[in-house]
Specification:
The protein is α/β, with parallel strands linked by helices and 361 residues long. Helices cover 30% and strands 18% of the residues. It has nine helices and 16 strands. A hairpin with an 8-residue loop joins strand 3 and strand 4.
Length: 361
Protein backbone atom coordinates (compact mmCIF):
# COMPACT_ATOMS: atom_id res chain seq x y z
CA UNK A 1 0.00 0.00 0.00
CA UNK A 2 2.66 2.44 -1.12
CA UNK A 3 0.15 5.27 -1.67
CA UNK A 4 -0.35 5.67 2.08
CA UNK A 5 2.16 8.19 3.35
CA UNK A 6 3.51 6.49 6.45
CA UNK A 7 4.00 9.64 8.58
CA UNK A 8 0.31 10.53 8.13
CA UNK A 9 -0.97 7.29 9.70
CA UNK A 10 -2.16 7.71 13.25
CA UNK A 11 -1.15 5.00 15.75
CA UNK A 12 -4.69 3.63 15.92
CA UNK A 13 -4.81 3.37 12.13
CA UNK A 14 -1.48 1.53 12.08
CA UNK A 15 -2.73 -1.02 14.60
CA UNK A 16 -5.94 -1.49 12.66
CA UNK A 17 -4.04 -1.96 9.41
CA UNK A 18 -1.73 -4.51 10.98
CA UNK A 19 -4.70 -6.41 12.41
CA UNK A 20 -6.35 -6.51 9.00
CA UNK A 21 -3.18 -7.80 7.36
CA UNK A 22 -2.79 -10.54 9.98
CA UNK A 23 -6.42 -11.60 9.61
CA UNK A 24 -6.04 -11.67 5.84
CA UNK A 25 -2.98 -13.87 6.14
CA UNK A 26 -4.71 -16.25 8.54
CA UNK A 27 -7.69 -16.47 6.26
CA UNK A 28 -5.44 -17.17 3.27
CA UNK A 29 -3.81 -19.97 5.22
CA UNK A 30 -7.12 -21.36 6.37
CA UNK A 31 -6.56 -20.36 9.99
CA UNK A 32 -9.61 -18.22 10.49
CA UNK A 33 -10.32 -17.69 14.17
CA UNK A 34 -13.66 -19.48 14.02
CA UNK A 35 -12.86 -21.89 11.20
CA UNK A 36 -11.27 -25.30 11.21
CA UNK A 37 -7.71 -25.36 12.55
CA UNK A 38 -4.91 -25.68 10.02
CA UNK A 39 -3.52 -29.24 9.84
CA UNK A 40 0.24 -29.25 10.40
CA UNK A 41 2.41 -32.02 9.00
CA UNK A 42 5.81 -31.16 10.51
CA UNK A 43 6.90 -28.74 13.22
CA UNK A 44 10.54 -27.68 13.01
CA UNK A 45 11.75 -26.40 16.38
CA UNK A 46 14.72 -24.03 16.55
CA UNK A 47 15.88 -22.16 19.63
CA UNK A 48 17.81 -18.93 18.95
CA UNK A 49 19.23 -16.34 16.59
CA UNK A 50 21.68 -13.49 17.04
CA UNK A 51 18.96 -10.84 17.14
CA UNK A 52 17.31 -11.04 20.53
CA UNK A 53 14.83 -8.14 20.73
CA UNK A 54 11.05 -8.36 20.34
CA UNK A 55 11.31 -7.31 16.70
CA UNK A 56 13.89 -9.97 15.81
CA UNK A 57 13.47 -11.14 12.25
CA UNK A 58 14.03 -14.87 12.62
CA UNK A 59 16.48 -14.71 9.72
CA UNK A 60 19.50 -13.21 11.44
CA UNK A 61 22.33 -15.75 11.87
CA UNK A 62 20.99 -18.59 13.98
CA UNK A 63 19.24 -21.92 13.88
CA UNK A 64 16.17 -20.75 11.98
CA UNK A 65 17.55 -18.94 8.96
CA UNK A 66 18.49 -21.94 6.81
CA UNK A 67 15.07 -23.53 7.44
CA UNK A 68 13.17 -20.34 6.67
CA UNK A 69 15.00 -19.81 3.40
CA UNK A 70 15.38 -23.43 2.35
CA UNK A 71 11.76 -24.48 2.94
CA UNK A 72 10.26 -21.11 1.92
CA UNK A 73 8.60 -20.55 5.28
CA UNK A 74 7.33 -17.21 4.08
CA UNK A 75 4.11 -16.85 6.07
CA UNK A 76 4.68 -15.19 9.44
CA UNK A 77 1.91 -15.76 11.99
CA UNK A 78 1.97 -14.04 15.40
CA UNK A 79 2.25 -16.26 18.46
CA UNK A 80 1.80 -13.75 21.30
CA UNK A 81 2.21 -16.33 24.06
CA UNK A 82 5.49 -17.63 22.59
CA UNK A 83 9.00 -16.32 22.09
CA UNK A 84 8.67 -15.52 18.38
CA UNK A 85 6.00 -15.62 15.67
CA UNK A 86 5.77 -18.91 13.85
CA UNK A 87 6.51 -19.36 10.17
CA UNK A 88 4.74 -21.62 7.69
CA UNK A 89 5.15 -22.76 4.12
CA UNK A 90 2.29 -23.65 1.77
CA UNK A 91 2.47 -27.39 2.45
CA UNK A 92 1.89 -27.85 6.18
CA UNK A 93 5.39 -27.27 7.59
CA UNK A 94 5.67 -24.88 10.54
CA UNK A 95 8.79 -23.47 12.24
CA UNK A 96 8.85 -22.20 15.80
CA UNK A 97 11.77 -20.54 17.57
CA UNK A 98 11.46 -21.17 21.29
CA UNK A 99 14.13 -18.98 22.82
CA UNK A 100 17.08 -20.40 24.72
CA UNK A 101 17.03 -22.66 27.80
CA UNK A 102 14.45 -24.78 29.56
CA UNK A 103 11.87 -22.21 30.64
CA UNK A 104 11.46 -20.49 27.28
CA UNK A 105 11.42 -23.77 25.38
CA UNK A 106 8.71 -25.19 27.63
CA UNK A 107 6.55 -22.08 27.51
CA UNK A 108 6.85 -21.58 23.74
CA UNK A 109 6.00 -25.21 22.91
CA UNK A 110 3.00 -25.09 25.25
CA UNK A 111 1.86 -21.85 23.60
CA UNK A 112 1.93 -23.47 20.17
CA UNK A 113 0.48 -26.76 21.34
CA UNK A 114 -2.56 -25.09 22.91
CA UNK A 115 -3.16 -22.64 20.06
CA UNK A 116 -6.60 -23.45 18.56
CA UNK A 117 -5.56 -22.19 15.12
CA UNK A 118 -3.40 -25.28 14.51
CA UNK A 119 -4.22 -28.97 14.37
CA UNK A 120 -1.07 -30.67 15.64
CA UNK A 121 -2.62 -34.04 16.38
CA UNK A 122 -0.76 -35.77 13.52
CA UNK A 123 2.24 -33.47 13.31
CA UNK A 124 5.79 -34.76 13.47
CA UNK A 125 8.12 -32.68 15.64
CA UNK A 126 11.79 -32.11 14.90
CA UNK A 127 13.94 -30.14 17.31
CA UNK A 128 16.97 -29.17 15.22
CA UNK A 129 19.57 -27.24 17.20
CA UNK A 130 23.24 -26.99 17.98
CA UNK A 131 24.99 -28.56 20.96
CA UNK A 132 28.23 -29.45 22.65
CA UNK A 133 29.50 -32.98 22.10
CA UNK A 134 31.48 -35.54 24.04
CA UNK A 135 34.79 -35.91 22.15
CA UNK A 136 34.55 -39.65 22.78
CA UNK A 137 31.49 -39.72 20.50
CA UNK A 138 31.67 -37.29 17.58
CA UNK A 139 33.28 -34.28 15.91
CA UNK A 140 32.44 -30.71 14.99
CA UNK A 141 29.34 -30.27 12.76
CA UNK A 142 28.36 -33.92 13.23
CA UNK A 143 24.64 -34.60 13.61
CA UNK A 144 23.30 -36.82 16.41
CA UNK A 145 19.80 -38.30 16.58
CA UNK A 146 18.78 -38.77 20.22
CA UNK A 147 16.70 -41.65 21.54
CA UNK A 148 17.05 -40.61 25.19
CA UNK A 149 16.89 -37.17 26.82
CA UNK A 150 18.02 -36.80 30.42
CA UNK A 151 17.30 -33.64 32.42
CA UNK A 152 20.55 -32.55 34.02
CA UNK A 153 18.99 -29.85 36.19
CA UNK A 154 16.76 -32.03 38.39
CA UNK A 155 19.42 -33.20 40.78
CA UNK A 156 20.79 -32.93 44.29
CA UNK A 157 24.26 -31.48 44.42
CA UNK A 158 27.19 -31.29 46.80
CA UNK A 159 30.15 -29.07 46.04
CA UNK A 160 32.89 -31.40 44.71
CA UNK A 161 35.37 -29.86 47.17
CA UNK A 162 33.33 -31.37 50.00
CA UNK A 163 32.43 -34.82 48.73
CA UNK A 164 33.69 -38.10 50.26
CA UNK A 165 36.89 -39.43 48.73
CA UNK A 166 35.15 -42.40 47.09
CA UNK A 167 32.49 -40.32 45.29
CA UNK A 168 33.01 -39.76 41.53
CA UNK A 169 31.42 -36.28 41.64
CA UNK A 170 28.87 -34.26 43.56
CA UNK A 171 25.77 -35.10 41.51
CA UNK A 172 23.17 -37.18 43.34
CA UNK A 173 19.72 -38.32 42.16
CA UNK A 174 17.31 -35.78 43.58
CA UNK A 175 15.67 -38.20 46.06
CA UNK A 176 18.83 -40.18 46.91
CA UNK A 177 21.65 -39.92 49.42
CA UNK A 178 24.70 -40.72 47.32
CA UNK A 179 25.82 -40.81 43.67
CA UNK A 180 25.59 -44.59 43.75
CA UNK A 181 21.87 -44.75 44.55
CA UNK A 182 19.49 -45.56 41.69
CA UNK A 183 17.05 -42.86 40.57
CA UNK A 184 13.72 -42.79 42.38
CA UNK A 185 10.40 -41.29 41.29
CA UNK A 186 10.32 -39.84 37.79
CA UNK A 187 9.45 -36.15 37.95
CA UNK A 188 10.63 -35.39 34.43
CA UNK A 189 14.26 -36.46 34.52
CA UNK A 190 14.04 -38.94 31.64
CA UNK A 191 12.36 -39.06 28.25
CA UNK A 192 12.48 -41.95 25.80
CA UNK A 193 11.68 -41.07 22.21
CA UNK A 194 10.04 -43.55 19.85
CA UNK A 195 13.03 -45.77 18.97
CA UNK A 196 11.54 -46.94 15.68
CA UNK A 197 11.07 -43.38 14.48
CA UNK A 198 14.52 -42.30 15.66
CA UNK A 199 16.21 -45.22 13.91
CA UNK A 200 14.17 -44.53 10.76
CA UNK A 201 15.39 -40.91 10.74
CA UNK A 202 18.96 -42.04 11.28
CA UNK A 203 18.85 -44.60 8.47
CA UNK A 204 17.29 -42.03 6.15
CA UNK A 205 20.05 -39.49 6.81
CA UNK A 206 23.14 -41.46 7.80
CA UNK A 207 24.88 -40.89 4.47
CA UNK A 208 23.98 -37.19 4.17
CA UNK A 209 27.13 -35.26 3.19
CA UNK A 210 28.09 -32.62 5.77
CA UNK A 211 30.57 -29.97 4.60
CA UNK A 212 33.92 -29.76 6.35
CA UNK A 213 35.99 -26.63 6.95
CA UNK A 214 39.65 -25.79 7.46
CA UNK A 215 38.98 -24.41 10.92
CA UNK A 216 37.29 -27.61 12.03
CA UNK A 217 40.06 -29.75 10.54
CA UNK A 218 42.75 -27.84 12.41
CA UNK A 219 40.98 -27.93 15.76
CA UNK A 220 39.84 -31.56 15.73
CA UNK A 221 43.41 -32.66 14.94
CA UNK A 222 44.29 -31.61 18.51
CA UNK A 223 42.11 -34.41 19.94
CA UNK A 224 44.77 -37.09 19.89
CA UNK A 225 43.48 -40.27 21.47
CA UNK A 226 39.87 -39.40 20.55
CA UNK A 227 39.28 -40.97 17.11
CA UNK A 228 35.60 -39.95 16.93
CA UNK A 229 36.51 -36.32 17.65
CA UNK A 230 39.03 -36.34 14.79
CA UNK A 231 36.62 -37.60 12.14
CA UNK A 232 35.13 -35.34 9.48
CA UNK A 233 31.47 -34.49 10.28
CA UNK A 234 29.13 -37.48 10.24
CA UNK A 235 25.62 -38.58 11.26
CA UNK A 236 25.19 -40.80 14.30
CA UNK A 237 22.83 -41.93 17.04
CA UNK A 238 23.58 -40.26 20.37
CA UNK A 239 21.69 -39.26 23.49
CA UNK A 240 21.24 -35.86 25.07
CA UNK A 241 21.86 -34.39 28.51
CA UNK A 242 19.81 -31.21 28.83
CA UNK A 243 20.79 -28.47 31.24
CA UNK A 244 20.09 -24.75 31.42
CA UNK A 245 23.60 -24.36 32.83
CA UNK A 246 26.27 -24.15 30.14
CA UNK A 247 29.19 -26.27 31.26
CA UNK A 248 32.59 -27.38 29.99
CA UNK A 249 35.36 -29.60 31.24
CA UNK A 250 37.02 -32.99 31.45
CA UNK A 251 35.56 -33.88 34.86
CA UNK A 252 32.16 -32.46 33.97
CA UNK A 253 32.07 -34.68 30.87
CA UNK A 254 32.86 -37.70 33.02
CA UNK A 255 29.93 -36.77 35.28
CA UNK A 256 27.66 -36.37 32.24
CA UNK A 257 28.52 -39.84 30.97
CA UNK A 258 27.76 -41.33 34.38
CA UNK A 259 24.51 -39.37 34.73
CA UNK A 260 23.06 -40.46 31.39
CA UNK A 261 24.04 -44.08 32.00
CA UNK A 262 22.51 -43.93 35.49
CA UNK A 263 19.14 -42.59 34.42
CA UNK A 264 18.81 -44.69 31.28
CA UNK A 265 20.01 -47.79 33.15
CA UNK A 266 22.91 -48.10 30.69
CA UNK A 267 20.63 -48.04 27.66
CA UNK A 268 21.64 -44.54 26.60
CA UNK A 269 25.05 -43.05 25.78
CA UNK A 270 25.86 -39.44 26.55
CA UNK A 271 26.66 -37.67 23.30
CA UNK A 272 25.33 -34.11 23.22
CA UNK A 273 24.66 -31.40 25.78
CA UNK A 274 22.21 -28.57 25.20
CA UNK A 275 19.77 -26.32 27.02
CA UNK A 276 16.23 -26.89 25.74
CA UNK A 277 15.51 -30.59 25.20
CA UNK A 278 14.05 -31.47 28.60
CA UNK A 279 11.71 -28.47 28.51
CA UNK A 280 10.69 -29.34 24.95
CA UNK A 281 9.93 -32.92 25.95
CA UNK A 282 8.09 -31.96 29.14
CA UNK A 283 5.76 -29.64 27.23
CA UNK A 284 5.07 -32.28 24.59
CA UNK A 285 4.43 -34.88 27.30
CA UNK A 286 1.70 -32.71 28.85
CA UNK A 287 0.28 -31.86 25.41
CA UNK A 288 0.23 -35.56 24.59
CA UNK A 289 -1.83 -36.25 27.70
CA UNK A 290 -4.28 -33.61 26.52
CA UNK A 291 -4.57 -35.25 23.10
CA UNK A 292 -3.05 -32.24 21.36
CA UNK A 293 0.05 -34.00 20.00
CA UNK A 294 1.30 -37.52 19.32
CA UNK A 295 4.35 -38.13 21.52
CA UNK A 296 5.39 -41.02 19.25
CA UNK A 297 6.14 -38.51 16.46
CA UNK A 298 8.96 -36.58 18.15
CA UNK A 299 12.58 -36.36 16.98
CA UNK A 300 15.61 -34.50 18.29
CA UNK A 301 18.61 -33.73 16.08
CA UNK A 302 21.56 -31.98 17.68
CA UNK A 303 24.52 -30.80 15.61
CA UNK A 304 27.94 -30.10 17.08
CA UNK A 305 29.11 -26.54 17.55
CA UNK A 306 31.77 -27.34 20.16
CA UNK A 307 33.32 -30.07 22.28
CA UNK A 308 32.18 -30.21 25.90
CA UNK A 309 35.68 -31.22 27.03
CA UNK A 310 39.06 -29.82 25.96
CA UNK A 311 41.69 -31.55 23.82
CA UNK A 312 44.87 -32.85 25.42
CA UNK A 313 47.05 -29.99 26.61
CA UNK A 314 44.22 -27.50 27.07
CA UNK A 315 42.59 -26.73 30.42
CA UNK A 316 38.84 -26.79 30.95
CA UNK A 317 38.89 -23.03 31.53
CA UNK A 318 40.72 -22.43 28.25
CA UNK A 319 38.15 -24.55 26.41
CA UNK A 320 35.57 -21.85 27.18
CA UNK A 321 37.65 -19.20 25.44
CA UNK A 322 36.55 -19.54 21.82
CA UNK A 323 38.71 -17.88 19.24
CA UNK A 324 41.94 -18.18 17.22
CA UNK A 325 44.43 -20.37 19.00
CA UNK A 326 41.90 -21.42 21.63
CA UNK A 327 38.73 -23.50 21.35
CA UNK A 328 37.02 -23.54 17.95
CA UNK A 329 33.31 -22.72 17.83
CA UNK A 330 31.74 -24.33 14.76
CA UNK A 331 28.47 -22.49 15.15
CA UNK A 332 27.91 -21.52 11.50
CA UNK A 333 28.88 -25.00 10.32
CA UNK A 334 26.50 -26.64 12.81
CA UNK A 335 23.61 -24.40 11.71
CA UNK A 336 24.12 -25.66 8.17
CA UNK A 337 24.51 -29.26 9.30
CA UNK A 338 21.19 -29.19 11.19
CA UNK A 339 19.36 -28.04 8.07
CA UNK A 340 21.14 -30.36 5.64
CA UNK A 341 20.43 -33.46 7.72
CA UNK A 342 17.10 -32.49 9.24
CA UNK A 343 15.54 -31.27 6.00
CA UNK A 344 15.91 -34.75 4.50
CA UNK A 345 13.44 -36.02 7.11
CA UNK A 346 11.13 -33.02 6.89
CA UNK A 347 10.86 -33.23 3.11
CA UNK A 348 10.26 -36.97 3.20
CA UNK A 349 7.39 -36.57 5.66
CA UNK A 350 5.80 -33.56 3.99
CA UNK A 351 6.20 -34.76 0.39
CA UNK A 352 4.81 -38.23 1.13
CA UNK A 353 2.18 -37.27 3.67
CA UNK A 354 -0.26 -39.90 2.48
CA UNK A 355 2.30 -42.50 3.60
CA UNK A 356 3.01 -41.04 7.04
CA UNK A 357 -0.21 -39.25 8.03
CA UNK A 358 -1.90 -42.16 9.79
CA UNK A 359 1.09 -44.13 11.08
CA UNK A 360 4.63 -43.19 12.02
CA UNK A 361 7.32 -44.88 9.91
Amino acid sequence: MHFLARPMLKPAMVLKLRACLVLSLLAALGIASRGAPLPIKVVVVTTFEEETGPQASGVSPGEGRAWIRGLHLDHVVPLPAGFHPVRLDDHGVLEIMTGMATARATASIMALGLDPRFDLSRAYWLLAGIAGVDPQRASLASAAWAEWVVDGDITSFVDPREIPANWPDGRIPWDAASPFDPPGADIGQLYHLNPRLVHWAFELTRHTPIPDSEGMRRYRARFTGFPAAQRPPFVLMGDNLASATYWQGTLAAQAARRWVALYTRNQGTFTTTSCEDAGFMQALTFLGRAGRVDLQRVMILRTVSDYCAPPPGMSSVESLQYGPGKAYLAMRESFQSAYLVGSVVVRELADHWDRYRDAAP
